[in-house]
Amino acid sequence: MLDDFLVRAALAGLGVGLAAGPLGCFVVWRRMAYFGDATAHAAILGVALALFFNVSVFAGVLVISILVASLVSTLSGRGLGIDTVLGVLAHSALAVGLVAVSFLEGVRVDLMAYLFGDILAVGKTDVLLVWLGGAGVLGLLWWRWSSLLVSTLSPDLAQAAGLRPDREQLVLTLALAVVVAVAIKVVGALLIAAMLIIPAAAARPLARTPDRMALIASGIGGLSALGGLATAWQFDTPAGPTIVCVATLIFCLSAAFGLMRHRLG
Amino acid sequence: MRLITANGLAVRHPGHVALHDVDFHIDRGEIVTIVGPNGSGKTTLLRALIGAIKPSEGTVERMPGLRIGYVPQKLHIEPTLPITVERFLSLPNRANRAQSQTALERAGVPSLGTRQMTSLSGGQFQRVLLARAILSEPDILILDEATQGLDQPGSAAFYRQIETIRRDMGCAVLLVSHELHVVMSASDRVVCLNGHVCCHGAPDVVASAPEYRALFGSGTGGALALYRHDHHHHHDHDHPHPHTHEGAN
Q1: Which residue of A48, A113, B183, B198 has the fewest CB atoms within a 10 Å radius of its CB?
Q2: Predicted interface score ipTM higher than 0.95
């Protein structure tokens, strides 16, 4: 079954969608959208370094993502203008990565595949990595769920309850780096943040509790991946962007539903 | 029994000293009020006591296994985060429906369980925060300007609720406020803070201390009298609280 490239693509997309949804909720709740962008864009630099040192792209992206995510975490605690810092980091990481890739002589790099994803080319190892990484992220969120929620609502409240909000921030940083590393093949560095934010935003009008919102976001993420892949196959469009388009469509429907319910009472 | 003890506490931020030379303690079952003008380091002191910030100097000791019920000054909930009152009460520890209901009743808001947190009024929100804080059956209840944004009858009612909770649950209460008139009469001790401890002692002693008057003027003493009348429902001038009149002058 895994010999069929479409099955592999579907499984990889589904894995990323399911894991990105709940993590994306925290990205939305904590206003970390730019944080996701910076980490994802830096992944291109990770690709360049991985190819240069001849190690697996997954490892290269993971290491760079963790580094950049930790850097952003540290800077955000220092009272700098955080949106400016992130704006600088998100774009400079991408630019530096692109320049670094151009230095790689003798290696033919299909840059488009890393910028926009190449889901139809994922191999068995990629599928395995996506599911291992995705399961790891979901497991981590499940384990820390309550502490993460309290820390998100109010770090002081968490502290008074004997929790360590800084540690929970680290958990999210790690989870984000793993999602970026497994998602780069599926939707590409430019659109990873979209897979985090759009399903979460789409889930918001449909949920009354954070737990429900995370579950729904996970479902919407998975649905977008499968729906997007099917659509891309049907209309011969690029798969990564089509997945994001389907997620956006679900977001629009959900937002319209939310508005209507609000009007009606 | 000492619940929290601070010795020689100092907290420095880059460029200014928020607190220095602060000695503080609170015992089981006590009500202690920290008063001070804006920027006097009240919130900083609370955050140091719960361990949210590390002191630059001095020590903070909490009784081992101390359970803290914390009611923050304000809590902003992102509109993107859906959460019902019931779910909020279950953070971080899962509370069953009966426990949640008891806590809501104690806090004076028995029928809010299914509402969204973002749809509550200021007073309801503070009471839900209070309900969450008492759910863990804390040894000490810490409230940071918990009545900000409430009108005077609202604050007075809120503090009466806290007195009742203290009576029922036997927990210590640590209040931070600049609304001295509504708080002080119920306190066992008042600590007047302005970067350091200017004066401390029983409410009446502090209200007439020169250091306190230098910070707040004597006008607030009149408001203190006003609250006592209200609280004890005496409206004549023949009641047994001489200090309130002294304060009103």
Answers
A1: A113
A2: no
The answer to whether the CB of B134 falls within 8 A of the CB of B107 is yes
Per the CB < 8 A criterion, the answer to whether B148 and B74 are in contact is yes
| CB–CB contact A159 B50 (8 Å) | yes
- Minimal Cβ distance to A204: which of B51, B68, B82: B82
Letter for the amino acid at B204? D
Q: What does the pLDDT read at residue B88? A: 94
Nearest to B75 among A31, A154, A213 (CB): A154
Kindly report the number of other CB atoms within 10 A of residue B161's CB atom: 17
Per the document, the length of chain A is 265
d(CA B89, CA B101): 10
Q: A117 CB contacts (<8 Å, ≥6 apart)?
A: A183, A184, A185, A186, A187, A188, A191, A239, A240
Quote the CA–CA distance of A58 and B207 in Å, as a whole number.
67
Tell if the CB–CB gap between B50 and A150 is shorter than 8 Å. Answer: no
Separation CA B39–CA B9 (nearest Å): 17
- pLDDT on residue A76: 67
Chain A nearest C-alpha distance from B55 (Å): 15
CA distance B29 to B3: 10
Answer whether the bond into residue B92 is a cis peptide, omega within 30°.
yes
DSSP-based three-state secondary structure for B151: coil
- What's the gap in Å between the CA of A154 and the closest CA on chain B? 7
User: In chain A, whose CA is at the least distance from the CA of B71?
Assistant: A157
A159 touches chain B (CB under 8 A): yes
CB atoms A161 and B116 under 8 Å: no
Cβ-based neighbour number of residue B244 at 10 Å:
22
What is the pTM (predicted TM-score) of this model?
A: 0.83
Contact by Cβ (8 Å): A129, A252:
no
Interface test with B, best of A157, A204, A262 (most B CBs within 10 A): A157
